[in-house]
Amino acid sequence: MSPLLQVSGLTRLYGDRVGCKDVGFELWPGEVMGIVGESGSGKTTLLNCLSARLEPTSGTVAYDTREEGLTDIYAMGEPRRRMLMRTDWGIVHQNPRDGLRMGVSAGANVGERLMAVGARHYGRIRAQAAEWLEQVEIDTGRIDDLPLTFSGGMLQRLQIARNLVTHPRLVFMDEPTGGLDVSVQARLLDLLRRLVTDLGLAAIVVTHDLAVARLLAHRLMVMQGGEVVETGLTDQVLDDPHHPYTQLLVSSVLQP
Amino acid sequence: MNTSQGYNFAYLDEQTKRMIRRAILKAVAIPGYQVPFGSREMPLPYGWGTGGIQVTAGIIGPDDILKVIDQGADDTTNAVSIRRFFARTAGIRTTSRTEEATIIQTRHRIPETPLSAGQTIVYQVPTPEPLRWLEPRETETRKMHALADYGIMHVKLYEDIARFGRISTTYDYPVLVDDRYLMRPSPIPKFDNPKMHRNPALQLFGAGREKRIYAVPPWTSVRSLDFEDHPFEVQKWSQACALCGSTESFLDEVVTDDKGGRMFVCSDTDYCQRRRDAKEAAE
After folding, report:
1. Per residue in A31-73, pLDDT tens?
2. Which of A86, B139, B206, B242 matches a 20 to 30 Å C-alpha distance to A163?
3. How does it sit in the membrane (chain A) (predicted)?
4. How far does the CA of residue A191 sit from the closest CA of chain B (Å)?
5. Are residues B147 and B213 in the same domain?
6. Does residue B62 sit within a domain?
7. Every domain of chain A and the residues it spans
8. With contact defined as beta carbons under 8 Å apart, do B242 and B265 qualify?
């Protein structure tokens, strides 16, 4: 068995400033990895580099493609990379408005990926869209409503449905629960946990919320100033932090 | 009609015509691909056919016979003034009979009379980019064309069916040319789309404001996009043309009074007139 994603020496510089520096790890199928750290620590830069949206200054990101095994995603051609992004991968944005088409109905949003990979049967596209709306606990009666009329939590779930419709193997999530109130957050986390387990998804979750990381992630990477300062199993990192920054991070969590 | 003095043949200077012809050659070589060209100021406003008129000026010769239609009619302001423009600046013959013309410049229609090999039809195009209302960035739409990444167009058709129960796009209906490039056929009704498929005439498209020329060479496949369970259909009317009785042509609804009176007549005036003439002659 080979890793799903193999990253080595990944560096992204913005001029003189460091986005992220010398990051390397392997992600295995079905594994959920959390990336935590304060604002500006390079989490999102790293995620963008991993998900083929931001070319790194140096280093490689290799993905285990279905046809050819581990392949550098920045060395393959753009058509293949795009195909990968809309079939094998999912990208869940922090702000669902970035990941959704706000001008078309919920059904069209979910069906878009299917149509992009060649589905041309309206009835079947619609049936699949309805099925996925049900999966993410959105009333199927709202399939023809515009996302503008949805609440924040529903938008985020719609975005997740839109990403999962092509049965991806790897999902990138940037603060999936950011900006949601706690009860909605809890429901979304439950849903994500269920989907990840049921579908055997691998995921990389960027978050600054340690509770989210504890619930979702199997493994954690702690970032500070663009560098990974500590990695390990989630419980291990959170219960017995070694690096001074991680200790600070863990001790800063408010207890209600 | 006498030729105006002081203009080059067909108004544009020779260098400009050469540039336009180069763009046309490239467009013909890559069916459906939008070729940028250096669109000139023409003595008519944008939106009135500056693209079409430049293409026509680029290809017209002293022996050509020109027909110009606007919404199918030969006698509307736009059609009359463009026809007169070329009669004056190029001294060429004009006609309203479709089969007699060697060049047909059109806005919004393809004539009902089938075109034949050797004829050229020039479309006036307001917005050449089919993906424009779905993706505002030009860099991105170009990339989508390069990668034949056209799934998003079906999102629009999906949305039509979800809202109206059928594909409600009735004009400027997107087509795939030669199974490769997505193309906007200019605002012709979708009734005319099947006429573009494997048409023996050369079809040229000019967009003056957007500075693009594209083409469909003779006998090229032009397929209208659709869904397997919602196939492409053209408009149908429950009545025949009130003037010539045709049941096969594209009909315009004309309001005749303020009491709800209306009639349906052919939009192609040449076709309608000749059918009426033939009927009279037979009687």
Report:
1. 999 999 888 899 999 999 999 999 999 999 999 998 888 999 9
2. B139
3. Peripheral membrane protein
4. 27
5. yes
6. yes
7. 101-167
8. yes
